TrEMBL record:
Organism: Roseibium suaedae
Entry keyword annotation includes Calcium: no
Highest taxon of the lineage: Bacteria
Keyword Membrane: no
One biological process term in Gene Ontology: response to amino acid
GO CC, any one term: cytosol
Record SUPFAM superfamilies: Dimeric alpha+beta barrel, Winged helix' DNA-binding domain
Protein name per the record: Transcriptional regulator, AsnC family
Length: 156
């Protein structure tokens, strides 16, 4: 789907506030309500807009620790990577996971109540996942720019 300036304004606006009514969104992006509604539906149907959700403050819900774990697996076979991926998807503490290039195979983003909770999780769950060769944790000391949405318009 080719995105025009109106589509980009819609995407930026919905990333800022996904609860905008169609009328408020139309006013904000400079369209009438019907064309705005049709464009949003098309963005949803093509999968550009995948979902709507609330952004939570992790600290206010009791998740004081944010960490990234660099994981190396024993073998680079597709089946071992698939098994690791299946297991990691089941873990509630894992909020994001990426297959990466470089000196590790996966980058896993994890939250925990406190350092003791993280330690228990890392040693009794992550360390025991199939194929783990090595893991290295980096703790976030301060979130300077937490994820707030994608920079709409950079993609072309």
């Amino acid at each position: 789907m080719e995105l025009d300036a109106s589509d980009l304004r819609i995407l930026r606006s919905l990333q800022e506030d996904g609860r905008l009514t169609n009328q408020a969104l139309a006013d904000k992006v400079g369209l009438s309500t019907s064309p705005c509604w049709r464009r949003v539906r098309q963005l949803e149907e093509t999968g550009i807009i995948q979902d709507y959700r609330a952004c939570l403050d992790r600290k206010q819900i009791g998740l004081g620790v944010l960490a990234f774990i660099r994981v190396k697996i024993d073998s680079h076979s597709e089946s071992e990577a698939d098994e690791f991926s299946r297991k990691i998807l089941e873990l509630e503490e894992v909020v994001a996971c990426y297959s990466i290039a470089g000196d590790a195979d996966f980058l896993v983003q994890v939250v925990a109540r406190d350092l003791d909770s993280y330690s228990d999780f890392a040693m009794s769950v992550i360390r025991r996942l199939p194929g783990i060769k090595e893991m290295q944790t980096t703790f976030v000391l301060k979130e300077l720019k937490p994820f707030q949405g994608f920079p709409v318009g950079l993609g072309g």
